[in-house]
Hints:
Radius of gyration: 14 Å
CATH class: Mainly Beta
Order of helices and strands: EEHEEEEE
Helix content: under 10%
Number of domains: 1
Distance between the termini: 32 Å
Shape: globular
Amino acid sequence: MEKSLNLTFTPDKGNNAKFVTLKVFEESQVNLFDKGDSSKMTSLGATQIVSWDNNPDTGQLAWKESLAGAKTYYVQLFNDSDFTIAYWLFSEQVGNVEQTPTPQRHR
């Protein structure tokens, strides 16, 4: 079954999408994360930089992959920029995101 995730974040500051990463892992990979070294984890698929809302203040990443049945999957987000971002994670393609005053924060 094909699944997708879409990450919208702000501020984008021109080229911030290269500093924000979204990865998806099978449950079997979590023990590597628990050991403190996620570099050995194998992610499923890859993200693409997209722009559905044409808003220069937001960045967007899309992930799509065919998954095998009902399993538990984990999503890992990275912000390697030097500033805090607000982000919204959706399980479908979205256009404009209404930015609420209390989004999730990731640094």
